[in-house]
Amino acid sequence: MRTTDARHTPAVSVRVAGPAAEDSARPLPPATVRALRDAATAAAAGEDELLAAATAIVQFALRHPGELVLTGLAGRRSVPVDLAEPPTVPDLLDRIRAAAVDTVDGIPAPDPLVCWSPAPAGDGPVRAGTALALRIAGRPATAVHVHGEDLDGRAAELFAQRLHTVLTRIPGAVAAGRPVTHVVGDEELAWIRHRLTGDRLDDPPAEPCHLAVLRHGAENPDARAIVDGPAVRTYGALRADMLRYAAALRSHLPAAATQQIVGVLADDLTSFLTGALAAMTAGAAFLPLDPTLPVERIRTLVRRAGASVVLTGPGTDRSALSDVPILPLDAPAPAGPPPVPAGDPGDLAYVLFTSGSTGTPKAVAVEHGQLSAYARSVAALLSLGPGVTTASPAGIGADLGYTATFPTLAHGGTVAAVPAAARLDAGRFAAHLRAAGVDLVKMAPSHLAALLADPQGPACLPARTLVLGGERLDPALLERLRALRPELRVYNHYGPTETTVGAFAGAAPARPGRDVSLGAPLSHVWAELRDPEGRPTPVGVPGRLFIGGAGVARGYLGDHEQTGQRFQSVAHPPGRPDLTGGRVYDTGDVCVLTPAGDLVFVGRADDQVKIRGFRVEPREVERTLLDQPGVRQACVLAEERHGESVLVGYVVHDGQPDPAALADRLRTQLPEAWVPARLVPVAELPLLPNGKVDRARLRAAATDTPADAGTAAPAPADDVTAVLAMVWADLLGVDRVDADANVFDLGAHSLTVTRALGVLRDLLRIDVDTAMFFSRPTVRLFAEALLAGSAADRLRRRAAVVREVLELADAA
After folding, report:
1. Taking the alpha carbons of 788, 791, 793, 795 in that order, is the dihedral positive or negative?
2. Is the backbone peptide bond immediately before 140 cis, with ω within 30 degrees of 0?
3. CA 62 to CA 155: how far, in whole Å?
4. What is the rounded CA–CA span in Å between residue 504 and residue 506?
C-alpha cells in the first residue's frame, strides 16, 4: 500500500502487520506513484491527508462507520466518516483540512500517523471493522505501516489489498471528478470466485435420474429401492412399474404438445416416486400434488400447469380432479409394449409451484440435466450409493425431501418412507428410522426442533448423517445436536427451488458461532454476491446472492415476464471464459462471505419469508385475504415466535370481522403454513409519506388490540386442564388460553402441536397419540380425553405437582 505528498515522492510500499499477521509489503507501480504525486500536488494535500482519504474510502465501501484521527507535527485532527453517500477524494480532503487541529501534548509525533476508530458493532454476521494505526515512515515517505491489535492474518491481507486498490484508482477518480466506490481488487476477486465456485463446472451432463433407476433395475433387480414399513420395492419391481405406467401414460399424453405434464397426487412415498419416475420415463414432466392441500388449490395447480393426466395414489381424495383424466397407481397398469424411455438433459423433469410475489403461485420448470447435476453433486458430498438408506419426513409438495429421494435412487441406494402419521410423532418417527436402518435424514430445522421437544426426540436422529435445510439453522439447535450425538455428521443445506433443490451444502461446525455457514457451493454451482450496481461485493460486506451453474432451472412455466426478471443469461461463469453460456438466478437473498470463507445468510431483499421450510410470499396471502367477502384492505407481515417465523395478517373489514371464520376460509384455499397465525382487525392501514404501509405502526396497533376471548379467560380450576393451558399459552406467546378455544384459531399449527405434546409427555409422563389432539383441538376436550383413561388418578396427582412448579416459575 502507499500514499502521496505534494512535496515529496509518495510512499512506494504499504506494510500491514498485527499480532497474528505477517509483515508484508505491496509496492505501487511507478506510474501510480507519479499519478498520486500529481493528484496530491493538484489538491495541495499532504501524504497523511491522502492516506486518510484512501482509508475512509475503504471503510465506506465496507459499510464501516467510524472516525479518522490524523496526528503529526502540527497536532491532531478528528474527522468522522458516515455512510450517507460515497465521498469523492476532493471532498474528503476538504473535510480533513477543515477539521480543527488540537495541540498535541508532549513531544510531537516523529512520523505522520493516521488512526481509524470504528463505530460499535451491530447485530448480525458483519463486523464493524478493526481499529487501525497507519504510520508513514521515511523522509520522503518510503512506506505505510498498518498495525491493529485485532488484525489477524486474513484481515491484514484484505486491508492491504483494498488500500492498494484504492490508491491505484484515486488518480483516475480525481481526474474524472467521481468517487472511488469499489475496493475489490484482482486478488480479492480471485479469492471470492474460488470460494463461490464449484470444482466440477465443466463436467458433462449426468445420466437423467429415471434412466439411472431403470439401469439399476436391470443390473441389480433384487436390490432394495424403496422401503415402506414391512413393504419393500426392489429396483426390479420399480423398473417394471415405471415401464408399465409409462406405457399407460402414453395414451393420455397429447402427441402435439410441446411439453407434457403429468400430475402425481399421492400421500405415500412409494406411489409418488413410482408415479414421478413413470412420468419421466414416458417423456413427460411430473407435477407433485400434495393431498393435504385444499381442493381448490389442487384444482388451480393442475389447471395452471396444464396437466394432461393425474396419477393418483391409494386412498387419496380425487374430488379436485373432475376436469382431468385419472390413472390410479393402486390399480394394475394396463398391459402393453414397454415404451422407449425418454429424457434428454434439456427436457423438463418436473414442475413445482412456489409462492409468488405477484400474488399468484409460480411454476418452476426443472429440466433433467438440472436434476441430475444436483443428484450427482449431492450424492458425492453425502456418500450416497448402494447400502445407504435415506429418509425425509417432508411432504411431496416442496422439494425439501428430494435430497433424500432422487439422488439416492439414481445412485443405487434405498429410500425409506416416513408415513404421514409418523412425521409429527417422535415415537413413531424413531421407530420407522430404526426399522428401516436409516443412515441419513433430510428435514427442516423447525421440524426437528419440534420432535426434539419430546422425550423420545433424540431417537429421531439418523445413524450417520443429518441434513438440515429449508430455513435458517439456529446455532442453539446445532449445539444441542452436538451434545446429544457428537459423532453425528450434520450438514447445512441451502438453495432455492429455482436452483434445483439446493446449491450450497457443508458440514456444520463443531462449535457454531452466532451464524451457521450455508456451506460451500455444490460441485456444479457457481455464485456471486453483488452490490446494487451489480459489482462483486467485498469480503465481509452483504450482497445480493446470484446463483449460476448446471442446476439453474429453465424458468417459470408460462411466465416469460417473471422469468426475465429473475433469470439472466451470462456469457460464461465468473473467471471461466473457457465455459461459454449459461444462466444465473437472482435469489433475492442477502448474504455475506466472511473473511474465513463462510457464506452466511443475512436476510431478504424483499418480503419473502420461510415458514416451517416453505417459501411464502406475503403478497399471495394478502391477495387471498382480499378475495374474502368484506375485506377491503390487507397486509401480511412476519414475526418471530419461539425462534420460528409466523405470519400475522392485518385486515380492514367493512363490518365486524370474525378472525376464526376468516382463518377457516383461508384454510380451504391456502396451504396450512401460509395461513396467518393471527388475524388482527384494524380500522385502517397506516401509511408512510411515500404511500407504503407503516409496518412499525401496524405492529404497534396489534400490540394495542385487546386480546380476544381465546386468550383472555381465567385460569382453569382443574389441574390437568390448567397445565395444558399453560403449555399452550407459552407456545403461542400469550398470557392465557381459554380452555374452550380452538388452538388453531389462536395461531397453532402442526409443528406447534408436536412441540406441545412433546412437552406434555415430558411433564405429565403421558403416552398420547398426536392424532388424538387433532380431533380434540381445545384444552378442555383434550383434558377430558386424557382423564377418560385408566391412569386418570395418577395423571391428576402428577398435574397438581407440575401446576405448582409452573406457577412458581412464572412468579419468580
Report:
1. negative
2. yes
3. 12
4. 7
